[in-house]
Amino acid sequence: MPTRARRNLVGASRAELQALLAELDPRPFRAEQVYQWVARRMAASVGEMTNLPKALREALSEHAVVADPDVLEVRRGGDGTAKYALAFPDGAVVEAVAMPMEGHTTICLSSQTGCAVGCIFCVTGVLGAGRNLTGGEIFGQYRTILRSEGMVGAPVNVVFMGMGEPLLNLAGVSRAVELIAETVSPRRVTVSTSGIVPGIRKLAGLERRPKLAVSLNATTQEQRERLMPIAARWPLDELLAALRAFPLERGRRITFEYVMLAGINDSDDDARRLPRLLKGIPCKVNLIPLNPDQRYLGELEAPDEERISAFAGILASAHVNVTVRWSKGREVAAACGQLRGQIIARGPAQAGGGSPAP
Ligand code: SF4
To answer: Choosing from 95, 149, 165, 257, which is the catalytic residue?
Structure first.
């Protein structure tokens, strides 16, 4: 066994593989073969790369590994949702979720090991900041779910709506999007942001641009700052201006997510203000009743179904394309950060020593 650290091939770009293979077999098609095994065929080891000569596989194994995060726990719901707690070698724990939808599965990935944005309705935000995940660590979540769920080659959508703010980790997310694009069209990949305006502008400039979702949750600046402290840094009017300038291909829309909180942002006045705010932006609105968690979210509650329906009705009558996302996987703690929160609450042995609650 070699004693020096071996390079993880998961997350490597074509150019990086070319450099790694330079002394073993510099022909470009060899690097491409390795890339395809990792990024398309989801190989779990160098040994699986059977179109490489045996001698090359052995030599490559001395320099490199194919390593994905460890599966710490999987919770399955009656609706088919599978929520994974995944651990990295430094002990960080993140969540990734597979949600069966009509005709395809949506895979939700984390971009950071915690989140400094601090939305008051989000367990990840309440648990505090973490580090950025590398592109390979994000892509490793995707590979782990595809392999574990027997979905390699199956039609999937990918959403960056797990732990963390993707646009505060644009380097890691861009690399992951590039790798995911080997198997999923960017039209089926959505990055969800709390409203990081410089990140939205950078995303707008990407050649293979994923779809954009914005976690809005409020209809006034004051209300938004109360729910999402980050709104003080990038105010609502600045955010909406950046979204109006975001390039959208024909037929594409921006998704606005609106977590519904009883007595806070669910009034008729809110419902009447929302269409005025979004005027001129091709969009749809997802109403998401809060997935309550008394341990971390205190007294925050979802409105009752009648209130949610009335709110949705006002939007619909103003010609807003609106859907209500009744929570999938409620019984498996599928809202952002809840499973990790439960693992942390059980203690460091199960949490793998990951970043603790503040
Ligand atoms: S909702 Fe997203 S941006 Fe807000 S605290 Fe949670 S993970 Fe961070």
So the answer is: 95
